[in-house]
């Protein structure tokens, strides 16, 4: 079963990359674009047929490694 | 087995006559995999078919050379059973396509060349050249290349200690990224790539193989699959973390008694590494391609053999040592696979899915590869022109400021502060001086290293330019007190099928050879990059020279920083005022005619020795060789570095004064000495027939030249701003 | 005195710190990350480098290594733990220190000498430093931009856990003297119990005049 | 108008991060998880009411900055 995982910085955490990207976007003349935040995107496979269980595994991966819960939050979606 | 056609051969970059030669050599029509292997081994990059004839003329020996060209890197003796192993290599084309990954994998490649020989890499250098700053691609390329070099070297934990950066419109469509590495080993623990011993196992270690950088595969893909989209050749992505593990694992394996020979998989991957090892050992090799660790599914023999996936090595082990070796690679989490063995058939035999998919004589791939003696014509020495009128009107301060703020002469700290230049804890001189100085760990001696080239000289007169590049490195090493020992070189040129370009190549080599011979400073390794051309316009000939020298006592080295006020500044070497092809003429006045400065090799040798002696006796307080921008810029740099001023008097006016201050006569140095030592230094100079001129003294805060005055603070601000401004938006 | 230096795949300042510790007569054992037992030691050092290539988040994968369980336990019993650069990142990822180290605000790797001001000279790591001592020490990192939540910052202040702050040569702590965007110019902090120190600058690189400075020496002397 | 953007490495391109993360996940004992690939995730706002035009702006940002088309590909989704 395939999942996609989104890891993003919590709202009150400064996002240096997003900020730099936003500056660069402005320099490119794309003036309509704002509020850019950058996060991480993962796709992974879980060898498990039960969706609930599979999702739990993905969740564990997030908690244990993929996200740093001090500064980040995550969400998980089933793919295809 | 399917047969190939001359069209396919052409698509893979072979000529019709080369295809005929292949058929003749193997006595039949090659299949697709075989043709791919020929195309890889016979291309310019692997076969050096246009350059071999001339490269063989370079001097490659002196009493320090342990291993000259022909191995993964060259080796020189640095005393006490220690050797330094080094090489420079280009990654120009990939860096233009994808600057970050291109530059990163360039660094990765040169590192493997060095540690494959048993050395622990201790210093990275790089020479990078871009088009004019206004060119729409330049900023992106500069940023990508610098962060790519940083990304790889920093992660590996190897300091990047020196290099050069230049902008010139001739590189608009062909940037140059030349990476150099130096490593250290013990003399009796140098590993070579000569295979031996029929039956010995051939081992694949490192990362898995993917479809990275398979040249030509896309063009011929209709041959093996309709699904061509998925088989598109892709850019190689570097994995410095995997390389760090590979480095440690290889060095650990090298401590055991298990290795016969070892070779990294660089250009043309598994093909060139297996063929080279077998060829050097005059043996055959047999590989089961199903045993090659793959990252992707359904990889075909053609792809497996031509993939340029990074961070991989091929090793011939002593029979029976497989388990011992495997344990080490498993510890480091790397792939390890016994993929074949050495045979006495003298052929390259490949098995795939229980079939033989390639069976060709090794000699046909290596020794019998084409070798061309291409036509060439020489570039005559340009005539002097009289530009005095233009020079008469120039204002010294204005000239100096224009040089200080020119991208080519601006402070490059924006570049090297992105490189970790201190890790490994032995960097004595970081970037910013004439040569980097890195201590040999655990000893009191140090290696000095530099990379240099002056393409405008090479273009004006390749013969002189070739000599000059060698001499400039010699001088940079001498200026820090090192004894120059040997060089490595990266020859970047345009299309060798053009007579003028081939002529540049030939003349540069002749010039280099003369300099190497006269200075006893041979070539021990190198790399050639041809076809640096876009829309029929080639780059200026750019023979990047990497020079390496030895400092016996780390405490007897000097920097370019002026050390104290009240000292005297001396010019060593004769100043005639050669202004043609100077940075002032070329970059500021845009006068590009005229000959480059003359090289006098006897003077180079004599003046270097004199300066090194002053450093050794601790008489020289600071030293800087005089290159771009002449005496004026050289002294300005010494002032900025030491944050101390100087007072210079020329007793000249008008054009003569400009030529004196900004001319680029060779074989010169500025040396700072205490006034108490002056008489002694003059005496020594007389004895050794060295030209010496006292032109001023050091003092606080300002640089004054006759009636011109500028504060050191202002010079620093001016010199530091270009890179920051350029990259701030 | 005995120190253990933990070596992760991708650590690359492990030798540098060993040389530094041994220069101050601290016997050093290198401990591979897969070990499950920590040798008896008076100090554990997490060295600089690029553990796991700095992939995912700097220090994240190293913080899950087998040996880190032991290190966490060791710290819990009051043992001294010193994380430099990547070591600091690992300590925050392991939860031994609060906050996180984000990308430098200019998004570039920075390697250069900076000044730091000693804010707390009452710790085992800084006790030989005079009050407000300004040190010149190099940094070399991509991710040294310290971040912590408001509450965490308050508690760092309340407990005197800020040990070093970036400053200029005169000791002014300002935006101008902040090389990477770090919150409050924070360059190094300790845990509440003051037995775990993390700092981004590399004191082990300034213990030898020939290599550019000796300001790191007092930190090592404090450890003795 | 808010968009989310996914930037991922092209299929044949090596993903060193994904590879290392996968190793770490295995070491954590999460043995069911495999085939991890890591990409980037952006959210941004376009000051434009026409959806088609807004998407075009986001697309331009991708092409010019957010994705490196030599090795990466991107996709864009409208959010909320
Ligand atoms: N790409 C680079 N990487 C590292 N150091 C560099 C780079 N470019 C220039 N430098 C450093 O800046 C200093 C000045 O370089 P350069 O102008 O070429 O000096 P010189 O003319 O004396 O050889 C040297 O110390 C050099 O090593
Ligand atoms: Mg130079």
Topology:
The complex is a heterotetramer, with 2 copies of chain A (80 residues), 1 copy of chain B (729 residues) and 1 copy of chain C (224 residues).
Chain A: E1 2-9, H1 16-27, E2 33-46, H2 51-66, E3 72-79
Chain B: H1 6-11, H2 16-26, H3 32-41, H4 44-47, H5 52-55, E1 65-67, E2 74-77, E3 82-90, H6 92-97, H7 99-115, E4 120-130, H8 138-156, E5 160-167, E6 176-186, E7 201-206, H9 240-254, E8 259-264, H10 269-280, E9 284-288, H11 301-306, E10 312-317, H12 322-331, E11 335-343, E12 347-352, E13 355-361, H13 362-365, H14 388-392, H15 396-404, H16 413-416, E14 427-429, E15 436-439, E16 446-452, H17 455-460, H18 462-479, E17 483-492, H19 499-519, E18 523-529, E19 533-534, E20 537-538, E21 542-551, E22 568-572, H20 583-589, H21 601-616, E23 622-625, H22 630-642, E24 645-648, H23 654-662, E25 669-673, H24 678-687, E26 692-699, E27 702-705, E28 708-711, H25 712-727
Parallel strand pairs in B: 4-5, 9-12, 17-18, 24-27
Antiparallel strand pairs in B: 1-2, 2-3, 3-6, 4-6, 7-10, 7-11, 8-10, 9-11, 12-13, 14-15, 15-16, 16-21, 17-21, 19-20, 22-25, 22-26, 23-25, 24-26, 27-28
Chain C: E1 2-7, H1 14-23, E2 27-32, E3 43-46, H2 66-76, E4 80-84, H3 86-93, E5 100-102, E6 110-118, E7 134-141, E8 145-147, H4 150-158, E9 162-167, E10 186-190, E11 196-199, H5 217-223
Parallel strand pairs in C: 1-2, 1-3, 3-4, 4-11
Antiparallel strand pairs in C: 5-8, 6-7, 6-9, 9-10, 10-11
Runs of chain A in which pLDDT lies below 50 for 5 or more consecutive residues are none
Shape of chain B: globular
Structural class of chain B: alpha+beta
The hetero molecules present are: adenosine-5'-diphosphate, magnesium ion
Give the end-to-end Cα distance of chain B, rounded to a whole number of Å.
Answer: 58 Å
Main sheet overview of chain B: 7 strands, mixed
How helix-rich are the residues of chain B, as a percent range?
Answer: 25-40%
């Amino acid at each position: 079963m395939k999942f996609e995982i989104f890891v993003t910085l919590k709202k009150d955490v400064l996002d240096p990359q997003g900020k730099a990207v936003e500056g660069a976007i402005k320099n490119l003349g794309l003036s309509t674009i704002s509020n850019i935040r950058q996060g991480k995107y993962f796709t992974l496979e879980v060898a498990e047929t039960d969706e609930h269980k599979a999702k739990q595994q993905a969740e564990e991966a997030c908690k244990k490694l993929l996200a740093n819960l001090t500064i980040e939050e995550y969400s998980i979606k089933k793919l295809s | 087995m399917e047969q190939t056609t001359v069209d396919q051969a052409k698509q893979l970059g072979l000529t019709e006559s080369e295809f005929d030669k292949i058929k003749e050599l193997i006595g039949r029509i090659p299949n697709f995999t075989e043709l791919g292997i020929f195309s890889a081994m016979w291309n310019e990059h692997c076969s050096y078919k246009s350059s071999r004839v001339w490269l063989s003329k370079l001097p490659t020996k002196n009493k320090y050379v342990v291993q000259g060209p022909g191995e993964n890197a060259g080796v020189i003796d640095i005393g006490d059973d220690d050797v330094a192993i080094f090489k420079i290599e280009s990654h120009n084309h990939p860096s233009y396509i994808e600057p970050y990954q291109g530059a990163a994998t360039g660094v990765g490649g040169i590192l493997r060349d060095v540690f494959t020989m048993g050395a622990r890499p201790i210093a990275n250098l790089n020479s990078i050249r871009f088009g004019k700053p206004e060119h729409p691609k330049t900023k992106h390329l500069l940023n990508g290349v610098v962060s790519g070099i940083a990304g790889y070297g920093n992660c590996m934990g190897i300091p990047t200690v020196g290099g050069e950066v230049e902008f010139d419109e001739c590189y608009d469509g062909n940037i140059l990224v030349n990476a150099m590495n130096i490593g250290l080993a013990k003399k009796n623990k140098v590993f070579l790539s000569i295979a031996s011993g029929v039956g010995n196992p051939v081992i694949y270690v490192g990362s898995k193989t993917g479809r990275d950088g398979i040249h030509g595969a896309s063009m011929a893909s209709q041959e093996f699959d309709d699904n061509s989209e998925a088989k598109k050749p892709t850019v190689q992505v570097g994995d410095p973390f995997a390389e760090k593990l590979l480095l440690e694992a290889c060095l650990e394996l090298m401590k055991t008694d298990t290795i016969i020979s070892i070779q990294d998989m660089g250009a043309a991957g598994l093909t060139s590494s297996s063929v080279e090892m077998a060829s050097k050992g005059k043996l055959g090799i047999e590989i089961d391609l199903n045993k090659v660790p793959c990252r992707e599914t359904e990889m075909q023999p053609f792809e497996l053999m031509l993939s340029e996936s990074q961070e991989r090595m091929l090793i011939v082990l002593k029979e029976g040592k497989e388990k011992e070796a495997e344990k080490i690679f498993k510890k480091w989490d790397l792939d390890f696979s016994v993929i074949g063995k050495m045979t006495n058939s003298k052929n390259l035999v490949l098995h795939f899915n229980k079939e033989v998919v390639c069976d060709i004589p090794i000699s046909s791939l290596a020794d019998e590869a084409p070798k061309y003696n291409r036509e060439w014509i020489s570039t005559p020495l340009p005539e002097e022109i009289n530009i005095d009128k233009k020079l008469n009107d120039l204002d010294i301060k204005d000239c100096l400021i224009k040089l200080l703020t020119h991208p080519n002469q601006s402070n490059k700290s924006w570049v090297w502060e992105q490189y970790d230049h201190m890790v490994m804890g032995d960097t004595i001189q970081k970037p910013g001086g004439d040569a980097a100085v890195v201590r040999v760990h655990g000893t009191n001696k140090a290696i000095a290293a530099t990379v240099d080239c002056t393409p405008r000289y090479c273009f004006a007169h390749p013969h002189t330019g070739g000599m000059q590049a060698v001499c400039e490195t010699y001088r940079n090493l001498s200026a820090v007190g090192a004894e120059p020992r040997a060089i490595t070189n990266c020859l970047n040129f345009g299309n060798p099928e053009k007579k003028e370009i081939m002529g540049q190549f030939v003349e540069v080599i002749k010039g280099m050879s003369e300099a190497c011979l006269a200075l006893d400073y041979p070539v021990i390794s190198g790399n050639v990059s041809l076809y640096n051309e876009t829309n029929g316009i080639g780059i200026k000939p750019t023979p990047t020279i990497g020079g390496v020298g030895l400092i016996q006592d780390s405490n007897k080295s000097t920097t370019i920083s002026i050390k104290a006020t009240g000292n005297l500044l001396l010019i060593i070497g004769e100043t005639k005022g050669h202004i043609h092809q100077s940075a002032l003429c070329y970059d500021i006045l845009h006068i590009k005619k005229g000959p480059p400065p003359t090289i006098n090799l006897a003077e180079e040798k004599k003046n270097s020795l004199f300066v090194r002696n002053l450093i050794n006796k601790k008489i020289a307080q600071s030293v800087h060789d005089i290159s771009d921008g002449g005496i004026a810029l050289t002294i300005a740099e010494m002032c900025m570095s030491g944050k101390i001023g100087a007072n210079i008097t020329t007793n000249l006016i008008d054009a003569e004064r400009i030529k004196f201050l900004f001319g680029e006569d060779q074989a010169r140095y500025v040396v700072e000495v205490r006034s108490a030592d002056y008489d002694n230094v003059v005496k020594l100079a007389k004895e050794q027939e060295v030209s010496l001129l006292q032109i001023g003294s050091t003092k606080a805060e300002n640089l004054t030249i006759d009636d011109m005055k500028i504060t050191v603070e202002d010079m620093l601000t001016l010199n530091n701003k270009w890179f920051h401004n350029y990259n701030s938006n | 005195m005995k120190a253990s230096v933990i070596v992760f795949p991708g650590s690359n300042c492990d030798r540098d710190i060993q040389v530094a510790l041994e220069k101050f007569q601290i016997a050093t054992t290198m401990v591979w990350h897969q070990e499950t037992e920590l040798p008896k030691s008076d100090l554990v050092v997490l060295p600089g480098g690029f553990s796991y290539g700095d992939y995912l988040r700097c220090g994240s994968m190293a913080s899950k290594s087998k040996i880190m369980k032991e290190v966490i336990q060791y710290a819990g019993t009051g043992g001294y733990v010193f994380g430099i650069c990547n070591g600091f990142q690992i300590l925050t990822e392991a939860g031994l220190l609060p906050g996180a180290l984000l990308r430098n605000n200019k998004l570039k790797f920075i390697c250069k000498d900076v000044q730091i001001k000693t804010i707390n000279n009452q710790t085992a790591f800084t006790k030989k430093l005079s009050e407000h001592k300004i040190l010149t020490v190099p940094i070399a990192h991509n991710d040294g931009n310290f971040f912590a939540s408001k509450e965490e910052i308050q508690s760092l202040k309340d407990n005197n856990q800020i040990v070093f702050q970036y400053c200029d040569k005169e000791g002014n702590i300002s935006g101008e003297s902040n090389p990477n965007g770090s919150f409050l110019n924070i360059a190094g902090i300790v845990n509440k119990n003051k037995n775990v120190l993390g700092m981004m600058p590399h004191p082990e690189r300034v213990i030898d005049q020939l290599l550019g400075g000796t300001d790191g020496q007092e930190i090592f002397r404090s450890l003795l």
